Amino acid sequence: MYGVFGGYTQWAVVFLIIFVLFFLLVPAYGAVSGTAAAAPGVVY
Description:
Elements: H1 8-33, H2 35-43
């Protein structure tokens, strides 16, 4: 199961999954917490 990056392909896939889940969960968490709580994260 070695791709273009060899042994690093597995870690790249894992990182990509975490990266996607992060950007899917953060907006949802911000919407539940409220725009006031999410504002500092958006500014910075």
